[in-house]
Amino acid sequence: MKSSVSARFNAELLEQQYDRWCEEPQSVDADWAAFFEGFELGVAQLKKRGEAQANGANGVATTANEAASVPVSTTPAPAAHTANQSPISVDELDEEFLNFRGKVVGLVYAYRALGHTQAHLNPLDQAGQENPDLLLAEHGLYEEDLERLISTRFFRNNERMTLRELYVELNEIYCGFVGFEFMHIHNSEVRNWLRLRIENRPEEQEQLSLDKAAVLKWLLEAQMFEAFLAKKFLGEKRFSLEGGESAIVVLNTILQHCPAHEVQEIEMGMAHRGRLNVLRNFLHKSLTTLLYEFTPNYEPDLVAGDGDVKYHLGYEGVRKLDDGEVRVSLAANPSHLEAVNAVVEGKARARQRIIGDDGTHTDRKKVLPVLLHGDAAFAGQGSVAEVLNLSQLPGYRTGGTIHLIVNNQIGFTTMPEDARSSHYATDVAKMIEAPVIHVNGEELTELVWAAVTAIEFRQKFGRDIVIDMYCYRRQGHNEADQAAFTQPHTYKKINARKPVGDLYKDRLVADGDLSQEQADAVQQAIADKLDEGYERMVKHMDAGDRTIFTGSTAEPQPKFSHDPVPTGISEERLQHIGKSLTTIPDGFNLHPTLAKRFIPRRKEALSSGSNFDWAFAESLAWGSLLMEGTPVRLSGQDVRRGTFSHRHCVFYDSETRERYFPLKHLSEDQERFCVYNSLLSEAAVLGFDYGYSLGCPEMLIMWEGQFGDFANGAQVIIDQFISSAESKWQTPSSFVMLLPHGYEGMGPEHSSARLERFLQLCAEKNIQVANLTTPAQYFHALRRQKVREVRKPLILMTPKSLLSRPEAVSSVDDFTEGSCFQEILPDVVEFEKPNKVDRIVFCSGKVFYDLVQYRKDHDITNTAIIRVEQLYPLNTEMLQLLASQYPKVKHWVWAQEEPWNMGARSFMTPRLQGLFDITLKYAGRKSSSSPAAGSKAMHIREQKKLLEQAFNI
């Protein structure tokens, strides 16, 4: 050929592109595709068309769509060949035809990529918007091209049609009431699966078993439930689903298709908007109980704590279907939007583990995470991106999540143009190449198709998918809010619009799918059920019978006790674990530093029975639990090696990077040890691991911050879940947080894990906060979490310099039978004359070693040092017992490294003063807005001063 297209291709490039095209047509650009496809048609076909034009034929085919209105452009078309002109040559025709084909393929690709931009998504704006990039003229196609025949393997698998027919179909598929974003997906298998499903949608929808009566029932249940609450409980906040009732249809459709797709459980998360509706009409929470929660006489049926408002509560139940049953759990959630996402993902992974659904990422089919979002929150909250980033990571994948965005097109009072810089609220999901289906929330057939597609996609590919349901919020942010203050025009449209349930009912009646009598009967049955539930609630209230409202699934915990818990192990087991930890497989090339220092140091400790350091104690604790049947999971940033290069619970071959996990080779019947380096996130990973602890309570689950102050980035998870979930939602956990903490003169960042913040959260024995000083104490604290029955989160201020400090070691006797965790530790010195002691210095953590050294260096004999290892719950009896050994004490001091307004001072001062009826003195840094000094010299000077104060103030 002499075409300009072929002239610009060199032979090597042409061959490469052709090979790619033969293997995967979608993998090459449209121009290349058109070029190769032209050759596929064959020269004979081209000659035939040339002869037809030479004989005066125009090549026009009359079609059924001939009269269809097709927007082309007002731009005049370039001169075209006609029957009266001189016939074109075959070579000229080859080039012209290929050029035409390339433009058509480009048009198809444009619709796949941009069709969503002019889809009719907004129920309040039926006109939609026109995208000039989708006009024919923008692709070099004009009115006289509309009846030209074309066939391309890139659309309808080479089916011959006119350009007009193709254009009409593209508009129907890509610019109707659904918009698709999938062309950003790199994986051609995934992209082509979606393409075929989308472009076969009309046929699939005809085959879709759509029970229109059931859809109407779901819609009216949601709609009438809100209206009923508004009537019976005037002015009560309920954060209604009004305007977005179709969300119940999407959820129920997903549920109905679960048994056929192997799904046994759904783990759900959502914010407060629409939660009551979802609780009632999807999870089937008792209507009587739910209505009772609106009454002024309602008191939660608690086993502990203070409860929470009704639109934050979770629920769990089993939905029985015609072809099976599905367990559905909705996680409790505070009003911190999107915070629950990570918790739900962690719970889902835990459930997958429990029911044996935790193989490779394509095997996680039995437990399905479903997350409901608001549009403003999905676009605005950083935790969304963090959790999306978890979706394909080895230690955090859950086999894909279905995200349903109830797109109210508004935040509190903020419109989208003020709330995000992206075009769609969903654009953040493209970071993980999740497909996005934008749907008009009043088009129920399309919504049902989207829901079925979502579950099929998730089950096939193990990846996230997003349904962006465009709707509106009929009320303000809450039912007492007047939205028209800030959105007058929008709310004029909303107030004039019928609810979606009424619209769908009218449509079914008009189309003859239901008679008016049948539709009215559906509505009346729902009304009767609501009235019956209310009357039942009133009857029992009047009779003073609250038993009907009980039935909490919360499990009462044993009372917290300071009694010692035996956590020591036999020396034989310790030696066995130690040997496994120091045995390297033959042929494994361990890094020279580990081989010459790390392993020999551990072997020496085992041999001598002394000098067990922090990391060794940790591994011994884990190993003993694993051999006793308790699985262990640790995750966080760089936890396999450890931030301070101290842990090394995974060895890497220096030549091959092959990994070896010593803790997985203890015994044949040991439990599983899981350790994962996480993404560089705090909120998502901490939330995930906390959620895992809820779903898998028998496992020791730990999260470690790279430095303690990294927890700042996850404060919502700490405040709203870890510290308060048992009180609010009756959900106990034995989760462990490891937060490196200590002042080594390295500056303001990473010195403090903000101990004071955790102590401020302490009440009602909700959490345990400890700042330990010995490896053995750490060993026992970890084991105690699983040995005793009571479940409480454990917050540990873990060391940095103590990891290698020679004095901060333990002996074998500190780990073996008869030993246990000690909440308060006595002075290391046994005074010959306790009556001579007139000063007690209380402290916690690393500063203890500095105090002991200062006392030794200055030959001080009148001061006892008592360590508070567990700051909360505080063992006051043990404190009194230890202090009673020194009857002549005149000076009582609290010493800490942190500034006066930080650390444990404000927490311990009133407790110690009340306990001993004293005035407690303070030795430490002065008040500061920054956690620590910025220079080493200042740090040393401040440290010296606080030590002097401790013994002289």
Automatic annotation (TrEMBL):
GO molecular function: oxoglutarate dehydrogenase (succinyl-transferring) activity; thiamine pyrophosphate binding
Entry GO CC: cytosol; oxoglutarate dehydrogenase complex
Enzyme superclass (EC): oxidoreductase
GO biological process: tricarboxylic acid cycle
Keyword terms of this UniProt record: Oxidoreductase, Thiamine pyrophosphate
Cited CDD domains: TPP_E1_OGDC_like
InterPro entries: 2-oxogl_dehyd_N, 2oxoglutarate_DH_E1, DH_E1, KGD_C_sf, ODO-1/KGD_C, THDP-binding, Transketolase-like_Pyr-bd
Domain spans labelled Transketolase-like pyrimidine-binding: 612-805
The family this protein is said to belong to: Belongs to the alpha-ketoglutarate dehydrogenase family.
Summary of the function given for this chain in its UniProt record: E1 component of the 2-oxoglutarate dehydrogenase (OGDH) complex which catalyzes the decarboxylation of 2-oxoglutarate, the first step in the conversion of 2-oxoglutarate to succinyl-CoA and CO(2).
Designated name of the protein: oxoglutarate dehydrogenase (succinyl-transferring)
